[in-house]
Structure of Glutathione S-transferase:
Amino acid sequence: MTIKLYDLCTADRALRFSPACWRTRMALAHKGLEVETVATLFTEIKSIEGGGQTTVPVIADGDTVVRDSFAIALYLEDTYPDLPSLFGGEGGQKMAHFIDRWANAVVDKQLVRFCLLDIYNRLDEKDQPYFRTTREKRFGCALEEVPDHSPDRLDAFRESLLPMRLALRDQAFLGGDAPLYADYSIFGSFQWARMVSDFVLLEEDDPVAQWFDRCLDLYDGLGRSSKV
């Protein structure tokens, strides 16, 4: 049975940019499950699967509807235990939960300062008023005042990745020799920025940049081949 994934898009419906949706896309690919992606605007989320949804990703697996990328990962692991594990055991699940929260609270919070206006400029005109209103309320200022590409901001972002950088000097992925869901949590964040912005976040010889490059090639180049 094909799983339906509601995936956030820009005005160009082929461009899918949500970090959370990318986490789910990679998890589904890891499991080797057949997927149908449904391009979804911000203003269309409320109508998904009969209504009541507020965020994406959302998957529909037969009659089962699941929202939230980490909840989806747990569902896939429990529902398809004979397929490759996303966590590699209970300890890996707990580690992935920490990494997922770190990605949301630390990595995404910094990345948005580099690419927020790029996102807005790519959105469908029906989504732009919603995006401007909600983000200006969140940041307490005009959308145009949020971006900060200063060297100090960039240096602080790169420095915040030091623990990850040190780990990746000794292993190919956060999961070890092969990726696990912890990798997809952070990959989604960097893929988000890559899909909407040309701003260079990492130096080429950074172990984090090299890890991201390896992730882009996973699953027949799923991340690399997607439209930017």
Observations:
- The first strand starts at residue 3 and ends at 8.
- The first helix runs from residue 19 to 31.
- The beta strands are 3-8, 35-40, 58-61, 64-67.
